[in-house]
């Protein structure tokens, strides 16, 4: 017996299958559309955030000052250093100052200058006098001041020629080899300026006996250096020689002289570059040896005797005896006294007789 309801059941099942397929297709399409929409929203959000960040960074960049132009290190900074303060050690300073150009022709206009080097215990007490002396002669001189002890923080007024001219200094003890170390430190700093041709050592109590033009011409045109050096027997001469210095320094080479010197650039370079004689003095010239009275006189005799005048340009009076030269007060310094210092004796200047011996 046939089932009359079979066609109806088949039609009902087919309708259900079609509904499921239609529902699945609708869900699939909805999911694809939703996914694409969410991706688009995420992309727009990221793009917006990036735009905001970019705008913010752009604002920040605009607010910052423009970067400084690159610093140019030209020849002027190398040959004429304007600042004397630096952080070089003595070894680094001497190495730098001992450099000598092989090319003798200078690639710049060079006015030879005199380096006035003051080795002081404190401020330059007579700076007003020196200010008058140097006035109007810019470009023909440079000043270097080495102070000691408590005066490391010493400063001069801005209108003084000594303002900003104190070199990096160390403590100095009278009669010790530290005196010579300070001299070499002054020379090395002055040698950094390639226009410095003559080098004069002074103290806070020195005064010029002539005007700047006379002293400048005397030094620049001189063919000789002025380091006092003589052979002296007795306890304050050869009696200070230490036998341990032999054979580097022999007893017959031992010399004595005033600490105050004047020299040219060639000799100054030799002095700071000396690693043969100076270490011997550092080690063995102590106590009553007084290295400042023997190192340079001995060294110059050994290295540059023919080009040295064997006299000092600084007047010093030792006639009263004792460990220090005569000291003059305001009552001693009269016109007559200054005239006497100017013309107290005759001497040689460039192999000719000359009445001006002290400056």
UniProtKB/TrEMBL annotation:
Keyword Glycosyltransferase: yes
Cellular localization per UniProt: Membrane
Pfam families according to UniProt: Branch
Domain of life: Eukaryota
Residue ranges of the TM segments: 12-38
Cellular compartments per GO CC: membrane
UniProt-recorded name of the protein: Glycosyl transferase, family 14
Species for this entry: Mikania micrantha (bitter vine)
């Amino acid at each position: 017996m046939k089932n009359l309801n079979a066609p109806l059941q088949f039609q009902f099942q087919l309708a259900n299958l079609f509904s499921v397929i239609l529902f699945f297709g609708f869900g699939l399409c909805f999911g694809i559309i939703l996914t694409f929409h969410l991706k688009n929203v995420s992309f727009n959000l990221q793009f917006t955030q990036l735009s905001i960040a970019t705008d913010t960074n752009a604002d920040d960049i605009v607010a910052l000052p423009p970067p400084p132009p690159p610093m140019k290190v030209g020849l002027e900074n190398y040959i004429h250093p304007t600042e004397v303060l630096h952080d070089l050690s003595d070894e680094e300073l001497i190495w730098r100052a001992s450099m000598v150009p092989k090319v003798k022709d200078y690639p710049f206009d060079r006015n030879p200058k005199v380096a006035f080097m003051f080795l002081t215990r404190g401020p330059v007490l007579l700076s007003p006098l020196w200010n008058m002396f140097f006035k109007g002669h810019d470009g023909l001189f440079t000043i270097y001041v080495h102070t000691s002890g408590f005066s490391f923080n010493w400063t001069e007024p801005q209108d003084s020629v000594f303002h900003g001219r104190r070199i990096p200094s160390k403590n100095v003890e009278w009669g010790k080899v530290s005196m010579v170390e300070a001299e070499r430190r002054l020379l090395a700093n002055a040698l950094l300026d390639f226009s410095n041709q003559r080098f004069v050592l002074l103290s806070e109590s020195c005064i010029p006996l002539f005007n700047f033009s006379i002293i400048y011409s005397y030094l620049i045109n001189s063919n000789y250096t002025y380091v006092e050096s003589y052979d002296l027997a007795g306890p304050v001469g050869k009696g200070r020689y230490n036998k341990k210095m032999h054979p580097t320094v022999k007893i017959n080479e031992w010399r004595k002289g005033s600490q105050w010197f004047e020299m040219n650039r060639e000799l100054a370079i030799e002095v700071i570059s000396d690693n043969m004689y100076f270490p011997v003095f550092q080690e063995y010239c102590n106590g009553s040896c007084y290295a400042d009275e023997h190192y340079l006189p001995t060294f110059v005799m050994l290295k540059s005797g023919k080009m040295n005048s064997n006299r000092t340009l600084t007047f010093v009076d030792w006639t009263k005896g004792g460990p220090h030269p005569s000291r003059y007060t305001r009552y001693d310094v009269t016109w007559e006294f200054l005239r006497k210092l100017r013309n107290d004796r005759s001497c040689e200047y460039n192999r000719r007789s000359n009445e001006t011996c002290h400056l």
